[in-house]
Design goal:
globular, mainly beta, 5% helix, 20-stranded mixed sheet, 20 strands, 45% strand
């Protein structure tokens, strides 16, 4: 008897042409990852039926919930597949390096995601998956990763992978020391930490009669963009923006040679939060923010990701 080891695990993704169905001709992508908590659960409903004795009767099965998060490294090539899953097809320009611009559209693609325990030959195939959210924590002395919240429809257990020869891209990571932050259109050299969260706000309640307890669809809701900025407290410039509810913007850029990745929130407002005088050490100011779209030009979107690399298409 062999116990499955996490070190032998793998994650494959593919884009569905029909929601909830594995493509007839798979184009699986082997994705490097740090951890995966994606799984299916099913509620068990205790019965209130009275039978004339104190013993309970058999419980009923509820709906199936496929959900969880996958943490992945932010890298030069593979990360484009996750951005496509989050935001949809990019607009690609250039002849090498290529510029892939991802921004908010009307809908996002559905995925098949396979979680493989390769050493014991057990493969969990999740269909009808969509990315509900992305969270990234920029700064500090940590590995640069992104957390993707995932909602799905169904799970199938198999003894072999749905794609025996997936596409595998080289792994070259962006790193926190390669980051630069721009605030209100100007470089911000005093930023200590920047957290960005993007959510598609999927409707998870689309269970239908006759659907076998699985989600029949995952409609996208209104996008939400939020986060927090922590910076050295040197003056009242940032705080004044929060106090006066002044519109601003934020961009975080990672650069590695000719490759780069930039996240941009074109319009945002900070939540008022005065700095604390909590001790003799250096003082920081931490401001939460909410992004939105009002009249941003020329991007016409509340959130944009631009990835420049050698990959011709996603």
């Amino acid at each position: 008897m062999t116990q499955a080891k996490g070190s032998k695990g793998q994650i494959l993704i593919d884009f569905e042409t029909t929601y909830g169905s594995t493509p007839d001709v798979p184009e699986g992508k082997l994705c490097p990852f740090n951890s995966s908590a994606l799984k299916s659960t099913r509620n068990q409903i205790e019965s209130a039926t009275i039978t004339g004795r104190r013993d309970p009767v058999e419980p009923s099965d509820g709906n199936i919930d496929v959900s969880g998060s996958i943490t992945v490294p932010v890298d030069i090539l593979n990360f484009g597949n996750w951005l496509k899953a989050l935001l949809g097809d990019p607009v690609t320009t250039g002849t090498g390096p290529y510029t892939h611009t991802f921004q908010v559209g009307d809908d996002v693609p559905s995925l098949v995601i396979e979680q493989g325990f390769t050493d014991i030959g057990q493969f969990f195939l999740f269909n009808g998956c969509k990315i509900d959210s992305m969270s990234i924590d920029i700064g500090g002395d940590n590995e640069l990763t992104a957390d993707f919240g995932i909602i799905g429809a169904k799970e199938t257990l198999a003894a072999a992978s749905f794609d025996a020869a997936p596409d595998e891209l080289a792994l070259t990571k962006f790193q926190n020391f390669q980051a630069a932050v721009t605030e209100g259109g100007s470089p911000l050299a005093i930023a200590h930490n920047l957290k960005m969260t993007f959510a598609n706000n999927l409707d998870t309640g689309s269970y239908v009669i006759g659907g076998g307890g699985i989600r029949g669809a995952l409609p996208e809701g209104i996008v939400s963009v939020s986060g927090s900025l922590e910076a050295m407290f040197e003056d009242a410039a940032l705080l004044d923006k929060a106090i006066n509810s002044t519109e601003s913007s934020l961009a975080a850029t990672f650069t590695s040679g000719t490759n780069s990745l930039e996240f941009t929130i074109n319009e945002l407002k900070y939540k008022r939060n005065s700095p604390e005088l909590s001790g003799p050490e250096g003082i920081w100011i931490s401001l939460e923010f909410t992004g939105y779209f009002q009249d941003a030009s020329p991007d016409e979107t509340c959130f944009k990701a631009v990835l420049i690399n050698s990959r011709e298409t996603y």
